[in-house]
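#structure-requests
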Amino acid sequence: MAPSDRSTPLTAAAAAETLRWWIEAGVDLALDENPHDRFAESAAPVPRRAPAAIPPVPAPAPAYEARPASAASVAPDDAARSARDRAAAAATLDDLRAELEKFDGCGLKATATQLVFADGAPGARVMFVGEAPGGDEDRIGRPFVGRAGQLLDRMLAAIALDRTQVYIANVVPWRPPGNRTPTPQETAVCLPFIRRQIALCAPRLIVCLGGSATQTLLGVKEGITRARGVWREYQADDGATIPALAMFHPAYLLRTPAAKRQAWVDLRKLRQAIDGLDGAASPP
């Protein structure tokens, strides 16, 4: 029998004992104060719930972010033809720069920050031609302004020259991504522009900095280690020839300081050739 003395406070243990007593007595349902006909409730049909609306399965997200379609790439033959036509149409160095700004035949233009055209004095007796701009050149817009350019300035100073006395350009005027070497196709597309740049600058001497510029402008097959230090002839479009000297690129000298000894020998040859211009003597 369940306890009936309600004056005694109900402890937790007593409540548990009372609950257990009611369960053993078969009472397993709590009732309220109102009567309920459980038989009628059990006989009544259970209302069926409408099935919940299943939200549509979203389409899978694309594996990449869609980008607007870019302009169709220019075919290599069309790009080369356009480069030749634009270069030939330039009557001045300013015209040539404007033509390069409008030229879309080289894919490097799309990834570069800006065109790196030239530095120094147009019409100078000596023209230096490198391979392509690097990161600092791409940001500033002038060739040879990074660490390699600073070394080039010191090399010029060693033979009593500075940028006001020379003209500096690159075979490719746009920076390749990651400072990689330009591909043969990129070099070939840009070749008419650098050849026209040389023609408009009309230097008396050309210095090719590095193997890529040497092979492109002078047509040599051997690497720069064997090609450097030898005077060759650059064949201009009008049939004239310009003495050209191949030298190590300043960036290579930063990586290989031991080669600076050979670079100094080449610089002395350049200085001798410059001195010989006044006496109408050809480079040795």
